[in-house]
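yo

u said u wanted the structure for the complex thing, so here. seqs first:
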Amino acid sequence: MIHAVRTELRKLYSRWATLSPYPLIALTLGLVAWNVSKLGGPIGLAPEAGIVTFFPLLMWWLLGAFAVVAAAGSLGGEFELGTARTTLVTPVSRGRFLLAKFIACVVHVLCLVVFTAGLSQLVRWALFDDLRFGLLAGTEGAYDLLRPEQHPVEVLSGAGAWVRLALCYGYTACFLVALTALSLLVAAMMRHTVGAISVTAAIAVLEWVVSSVEPLAHVRPFMLVDQARGWLWVASGIVPVERVLAGLASMTGYTVACLVCAWVSLARRDVHA
Amino acid sequence: MSGSVAAEVAVIDSATKQYGRLTALRDFSAALRPGEIVGVLGPNGAGKSTLMRLLCGLATATSGSVMVLGRPMPRCRCAVLAEVGAMIEAPAFYEHLSARENLRILAGYYRHVPAERAQRVLDLVELSGREDDRVGTYSVGMKRRLGLAAALLPFPRFLILDEPASGLDPEALVMVEGILRREARERGVCVLLSSHLLAEVARICDRALILRQGALIADVPVAPADSGWIEIAVDRPAAALELVRGLRNAPDAKLDGGLLLVQAGSADPSELVTELVTAGHRVSRVSPHTPTIEERYFEVLAERASAGGGGS
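structre next:
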């Protein structure tokens, strides 16, 4: 298993496509930082702030998109190039093959989260000479930063803020892991990278739409995107901690269900040319 | 088919594979023994690759059974594939990695294959010197050789090779044939290869399985064998055939590519020659008819076509 995971990581990181999110994240955060410093405070009130706040929101989707692209390409690409055929005539089982890909993709998305978090802290420190509240997660955290009047610093002060910060990053990671599992499931069924990316994105958007429809409020806890949106508010103290645990359980179930279905699809269906 | 499963490398019993309405392989039965090289022949779409996919567990038979090394496929896929080397269709590798890296990745999936084995098989297929180049820079023939190297990695007892000679230059072809012969003779490896090159099959195979429309229509030895006919090289063969058929106690006779064929045992060759010469024919040669695999292949296909076609 260790060899399989190491191999998948080697394959993943030998492609430029896997490395491309890093400069893109740095660029996006850099643009945010540049805009913040250019506009000065109070940022949230400035009419030009719209473009600044857009970047963090874009970042939130970007991380998800990077996770989907990596996972769909990792499995779909094997079938498109025919390398799945070469690998699956060795004694590696379909389950091990899939699990190794999943673990490698999870490592990749965790690296992205850590990178984003680290860089965000750096930006925070560079702009405000303050590392205490590194809530600039590169996503909605930056929104907090830009609109301090909406999310006053007091809410985040003390140890509770750090706990919320950890939850924020943890929840982001969980969302990306669940999205990775969903991408692998779609890729295992479609066996095509672009198709898998498109369908996964369509499912995510559909979940977002469904979770926004008020009569369907009772299904929200099972909606991946809705759960993920929740993390944005966790860090700001809006969502109580007990809902976070329910959300984590929901995402874990989501991940396991996707992986099991992906395994069934891989194991039951033939490998064609 | 039953009884000697353990002694056979592979036993396929009434295997049928359907893709929707298309029957890619129809009621196929065959047994493959250690140390033999078996060629799979047939027109495009005859079911050759499907047969190979069934044998290495990439596909599951719709009905019938496939046993490889005494174990059912694809149920025992992992255990079986530890001792099987396969190259199915065009070999595909990670093009941005080197040949050595690709083989090391594959070697890692086998418990008993040391990392150094990658270099050994690269030497065998004469890719040393280019082993650190990206596979993307390789020619079609080099990729085939790399595919063979990958198949040889696990010290296989059973080699499944889909068109191993396709795209190879003459020197590489001789090298590959040499490797396959050595593996079969010295290590007792059973080699199953598909090919469109009948001359290649004739050179290295012990027997040939001929498929048409998914059905096995012939299982023939490749070595030239006495067909039970005598071939007579004669001028004006059509007139000679008429003459032979008009004789008293006329033997079975037919024409084959400008040669007059007469059923051995149904006539005395010397008497026939005398009759032909007396009638003014010039006879240049009389010999036993030993058809090549190429002749047998087309003969079998023609027989099937005239008998109503297909493998049904």
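Residues 99 and 147 of chain A are 42 Å apart (CA to CA). Residues 94-128 of chain A form the longest helix (35 residues).
cya
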